[in-house]
Design goal:
alpha+beta, Thiol Ester Dehydrase, Chain A, about 140 residues, elongated, homotetramer, five-stranded antiparallel sheet, 3 helices, about 40% strand
């Protein structure tokens, strides 16, 4: 296994809850986004700010998510993410969201991110040194 | 083609925009949700409130979304949705999000919804009369 | 009365609803923000983009809001806003949110905005020509 | 001083950031709401769930907020809240939001909450035993 999986803890906020008394479906994507930012900074030691300074950015190309069990007000969750594969301009990042109280899977899926050059706005082949920074 | 496609117009709000000056990725899911609610009421003539009164509800089982082009502050968009297929307890709903200014595709994908009995909380085979209400 | 009041219509989205089945308290502020953007463009003919190009921006200094009646899923609302007074670096903008179905007041209040020079990041006395653009 | 002040730590999430690269104005209200829920559970030992079970609820009557300094992506903040006064059906709760990195005030203000009987939907004089539960 070349790439590691990292974990970030999040406490559900009241504004994450929707009319069904569960965490709103689209907030799951925000939880994964938060986890990636935290893990870039704390685990990869490659914070988004540094990535942007180099003239690069990530855009989401597509996303797949399976909802397994609801999350509730006050829940503490664990978001596990890790690089699945790197393919030219793209990185596939898998994720799992665990409800800590039961230790059961609440959702899983992946994001496909494309690296762009922020000057040209175009996709660019991911350089080896970037791949290395993600290979911890 | 058994099922119809319907359209809902939405104007992007400032609170939909994120730090990248684009509509935030997760808000696309909220736009589709809004379109489905409007279309249940206006096109299927089967508003969510009536569905809930019958003792049924929909939960999202999974979702697939492809981001094609960014959406910006002040954009008016068209969200097209339609039933793709009904399979026992599940309905697959496809969607397309169009940026009206350019008439180009901003995103597309589908949601798989499971019908639940709100008393038991369990998935239930979708009755024929419900399928008929969606067959307009 | 030197300054006019303008109106913007908004349809409540499902993602605006919280666990109490009402529009979430903080979303009222987002509705007013949306109304101001629309009215800058359509009524003052002075879109935020143009304001930013001139090197100016608005920041919220404080906000007062009174919640009178709840708003519900599917509600259409009218957001009325208008300049109350201009005082050196600051503009006070009043607002009212009306629930169209009943034509009753759902909330009212005001925002105090400070004009900043986006180069210096500092508050700046609002020039006469800006006041004139708001005096329609 | 009859009523105590409590503190809750929150880490700003990427979805809290708006197009100005700061925490979005309306999210400050959500941070205070989150802090109150945590403090009801952890400090008052009177979680919202228990309050609702007794047949009571809180609705926001009005809110005043002063924005002092911006909050940024990745910031850790401290939200301090405390009861200011109880007046028949109403409780005034003050809040301060501190940016931990600088230990400076980012915002302050108060919420006025009215206690309602969830069966009648009407405001009700706050019983002594409820006031006592908040007098820790």
């Amino acid at each position: 296994m070349k790439y590691s999986t990292f974990e970030t803890k999040i406490t559900v906020r009241p504004d994450d809850i929707d009319m069904n008394q569960h965490v709103h479906n689209s907030r799951y994507l925000d939880f994964v986004l938060f986890a990636r930012y935290q893990q870039m900074r704390d685990n990869y030691k490659f914070p988004m700010e540094e990535f942007l300074e180099k003239g690069y950015g990530w855009v989401v190309k597509n996303c797949w998510i399976e909802y397994k069990r609801p999350l509730f007000l006050g829940d503490e969750i664990t978001v596990r993410t890790g690089v699945l594969e790197v393919d030219r301009t793209d990185v596939r990042v898998k994720f799992e969201i665990i409800r800590n109280k039961t230790n059961k899977l609440a959702a899983n899926g992946y994001f496909l991110y494309t690296m762009i050059n922020t000057t040209t706005g175009r996709a660019e082949v991911i350089p080896d040194w970037v791949i290395e920074r993600y290979s911890v």
